[in-house]
Amino acid sequence: MVHAAQYYPSLICLLSHGLRFHPAFIQMRKCVEKYVGVPKLCQCRLDMGPTLGKTFNWLCDDVMGGGNVTLFGSHLIDLITYLTGQKASRIHAVTKTLIPQTRGISGTRRITSTDFAVVQMEMDSGMFVSMTLSNQMARGHFSQELLLYGSKGFLRADGGTIKGFTYTRQEKEYQRTNSTTTQGNEFQYQKTNLEELKEIILYEDSEDADFLLIDRSIRSSCSNDEVHNISALFPPIYMDGLLKLLGCLREAFNIPNGREWKKESAVGLLGSGFEEGLYVQAVIEAIKESSKTNQWIKVSIITEEPDPNPTLTAAVRTSTISM
User: Fold this and answer.
1) What is the pLDDT of residues 290-311, one digit of tens each?
2) What is the 3-state secondary structure (H, E, C) of the chain?
3) Which whole-number Å values give the CA distances from 31 to 3, 21, 25, 55, in the listed order?
4) Which candidate, 144, 142, 158, places its Cα nearest to that of 209?
5) What radius of gyration, in Å, describes the C-alpha atoms of the chain?
6) Fewer CB near the terminus (10 Å): N or C of the chain?
């Protein structure tokens, strides 16, 4: 698919990594040079409720694509590369299924999808990443925090709110405090330091969920007051990013005379293509392999189509050599 997509100039090959299109992370990427400098450490934490339904489906099976690593970890892996431009080279991970059965999923059915994961990644330019994913909170709860530390300071994304802090401000305020000699002036300076050394809000997002994004079958059976107490299909920050992606996708095809889409549009500049998808898939496979072997695993990206039947291919080669 990756190679075939390159031969069709009018075809847009795009993955639904909507966090790239969210205004909060677009602003965060612009502030990396000013507030972070050279990225050294990235910490991600995601806490949310269970994503499984009342009956067994593909979300319960790890092989079919269920689990928080695939559903949400893939977005965070792509987001880290989008913000820093670095890719993972080695991975160590521990994934667990802490709740193998529920009231509706019991008997011969077992849940194999991951509901807790701790992932450590060494990036190709020296940055270290620590990521924790958990589905142990109450249903409907969601909190996501991403901290990016560097040589100049750090950026913190708490949901859709971006805050920044630089170490130079801290050093200046510390020197100004120590330069005072009078006890009264020293108290006054220290009091102002606590206010001036707070994180600067760079972007603040209103996390009002769009009620059109709630499951249609549930929304039709509830009153207007009950709808406000129902969680959306996906967390608001992910839904907002997905809607921004679809809006940019519509603008990319808004061409009066011509067949090719605008590659200088937001989709071409921000979008995650199949090559990024191959990288994310390679990282997820390395996470699964590391959890099984309890070892550091090197990330290897597939460049050729895998052989669907390696046993038959080996037999054909052997027969050809013998002839």
Assistant:
1) 999 999 999 998 776 666 666 6
2) CHHHHCCCCCCCCCCCCHHHHCHHHHHHHHCHHHHHCCEEEEEEEEEECCCCCCCCCHHHCCCCCCCHHHHHHHHHHHHHHHHHCCCEEEEEEEEECCCCCCCCCCCCCCCCCCCEEEEEEEECCCCEEEEEEECCCCCCCEEEEEEEEECCEEEEEECCEEEEEEHHHHHHHHHHHHCCCCHHHHHHHHHHHHHHCCCEEEECCCCCCCHHHCCHHHHHCCCHHHHCCCCCCCCHHHHHHHHHHHHHHHHHCCCCCCCCCCCCCHHHHHCCCHHHHHHHHHHHHHHHHHHHHCCCEECCCCCCCCCCCHHHHHHHHHHHHHC
3) 34, 16, 10, 44
4) 142
5) 24
6) C
Specify which residues 240 forms β-bridges with.
none
Q: Which amino acid is at 16?
A: S
pLDDT of residue 286: 96
> Between the CA of residue 313 and those of 305, 319, 320, what are the distances in Å?
14, 10, 11
Q: Which amino acid is at 74?
A: S
∠ CA(112), CA(277), CA(272), 5° rounding? 130
- Summarised one tens digit per residue, pLDDT across range 113-170 is 999 999 999 999 999 999 999 999 998 899 999 999 999 999 999 999 999 999 876 6
CB-CB neighbours of 114 under 10 Å:
25
Dihedral (Cα; 304, 74, 98, 229), 10-degree rounding: -150
Check: CB of residue 270 under 8 Å from CB of residue 20.
Answer: yes
